[in-house]
């Protein structure tokens, strides 16, 4: 069974600081990995999708890396803003399922 | 709004009520999913439908009954729920269940409170 772990569980930074969110998974035979953002009480918004053959994906201030062999992915958010405050979820697709971590809750202080 | 729409957004029901959650996608996807998100817990997969056939029931109690009348619509019928069933219920879709090359798209969820 795939186990997904996200560290840290919570993070508070001043505005402008770079964010580093970590995700690890136990079964490296993944199809792809997806990072989502969730605002309180809301649904999931897809941020980045990395196929198993890729090493990284970038979108604006967001960059996600994938090291499939070691079962790790990292989401980098550059120059954080208060609007980046949310919970970030890592999800891996394998065995015809999507497995989620518990998330990292980010607070960016103005 | 994403390509996946869920209604209602909020629902309060008594333990003896019967209600249904609705999910609709206009993305042309062939697979649809129900997830449950309880406080402080990771998302839990409940049901998977591929081409309108249920392919996974993740040990969900029978008081939750899914229905997929066509590839664009998914329902979750609820009856005699318990207070511990209070959670955010999320619907998702993907192009294909076996090879979700374009990832998953989620709806905004239904916040269910059982009283």
Q: List how many beta strands of chain A DSSP finds.
A: 11
What percent of the residues of chain B sit in helical stretches (DSSP H or I)? under 10%
- Radius of gyration of chain B over alpha carbons? 13 Å
- Class inferred from helices and paired strands of chain A: mainly beta
Q: Whole-number radius of gyration of chain A? A: 13 Å
Oligomer: heterodimer
Class from secondary-structure proportions of chain B: mainly beta
Q: What is the rounded distance between the termini of chain B?
A: 29 Å
Instruction: Note the gap between the termini of chain A.
Output: 41 Å
N-to-C series of helices and strands of chain A = EEEEEEEEEEE
Mean pLDDT of chain B, rounded to whole units? 91
Count every beta strand of chain B, where a strand is a DSSP E run of 2 or more residues.
11
Strand content of chain A: over 45%
Features:
heterodimer; A: 110 residues; mainly beta; 5-stranded antiparallel β-sheet; 0% helix; 60% strand; B: 115 residues; 4-stranded antiparallel β-sheet; 11 strands
Give a short summary of the structure.
Chain A has 110 residues and is mainly beta.
Describe this entry's structure for a reader.
The complex is a heterodimer of chains A (110) and B (115). Chain A is an all-beta fold and 110 residues long. Chain A contains no helices and eleven strands. Chain A starts with a strand and ends with a strand. The relative contact order of chain A is 0.35. With 115 residues, chain B is mainly beta. In chain B, the strands form two sheets. In chain B, strands 2, 4, 5, 6, 9, 10 and 11 form a seven-stranded mixed beta sheet that branches. In chain B, strand 7 and strand 8 form a beta hairpin. Chain B is globular and about 40 Å long. The model of chain B has no long low-confidence stretch (mean pLDDT 91). At the A-B interface, strand 4, strand 5, strand 9 and strand 10 of A face strand 9 and strand 10 of B.
């Amino acid at each position: 069974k795939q186990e997904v772990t996200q560290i840290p569980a919570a993070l508070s930074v001043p505005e402008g600081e770079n964010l580093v969110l970590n995700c690890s998974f136990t079964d490296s035979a993944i199809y792809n990995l997806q990072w989502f953002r969730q605002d309180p009480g809301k649904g999931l918004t897809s941020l980045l999708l990395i196929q198993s053959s890729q090493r990284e994906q970038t979108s604006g201030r967001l960059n996600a890396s994938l090291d499939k062999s070691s079962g790790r992915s990292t989401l980098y958010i550059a120059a954080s803003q208060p609007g980046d405050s949310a919970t970030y979820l890592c999800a891996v697709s394998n065995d015809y399922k999507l497995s989620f971590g518990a998330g990292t809750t980010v607070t960016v202080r103005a | 709004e994403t390509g996946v729409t869920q209604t209602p957004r909020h629902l309060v029901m008594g333990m003896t009520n019967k209600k249904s959650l609705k999910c609709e996608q206009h993305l042309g996807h062939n697979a649809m999913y129900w997830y449950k998100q309880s406080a402080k817990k990771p998302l839990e997969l409940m049901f998977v439908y591929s081409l309108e056939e249920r392919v996974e029931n993740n040990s969900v109690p029978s008081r939750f009954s899914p229905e997929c009348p066509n590839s664009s619509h998914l329902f979750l019928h609820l009856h005699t729920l318990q207070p511990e069933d209070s959670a955010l219920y999320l619907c998702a879709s993907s192009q294909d269940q076996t090879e979700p090359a374009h990832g998953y798209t989620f709806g905004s969820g239904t916040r269910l409170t059982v009283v």
